[in-house]
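Thanks for the sequence, V.! I ran Ferredoxin right away. Repeating your input here for the record:
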Amino acid sequence: MTLYFDAAAALFQVYPSCNGRWEDRLWLNVPGPVYGAETDNCATGRLEAPRHIHYGGQYFTEYVYRQPRTPDEVRDVLDAIEADPMDGYAWDGDQWWTPESVREWWRDRKRILEYLRDQMREWERYDRWIPDQRAVEGALDFAAYIAGGTDSGSLETDLRIYLYWLQERRSPTPADRLPEL
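Predicted structure:
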């Protein structure tokens, strides 16, 4: 049994190249291979991948708040990628994230939680405008994921698994010791 699912390899099989640029990624993107960078703001991402995509930043663009961990989740995220007319998603994050930058992102999580809290009224308006978005639900799910209280596990554990992947370039097994954040 392995703990890390290589979403980038699965996406690469469908799309060998990606157009999103690391320099343009939104700071809210959770560390991992997939990220949103100058995506559209047409409110399509959550319709396709509501457990993975949310909106934020200056232009309310899309970002990845939970990395896909199964083939089905990759299909959902792929649907969001295909719905983005700006071609702003990328899956080369493994080339850019380092153990140090993942740890730095994690240390800054309070800023993300404050942002999620402060934007709640905006997402309530968004949900009234496009009810299927469930933007409030997504923000609450992201906050709970950071806090470790979702049915999908904890972001802390997922990031420790990702750190192992970055350092060893293989999935940890249940017997392997995960690095600390």
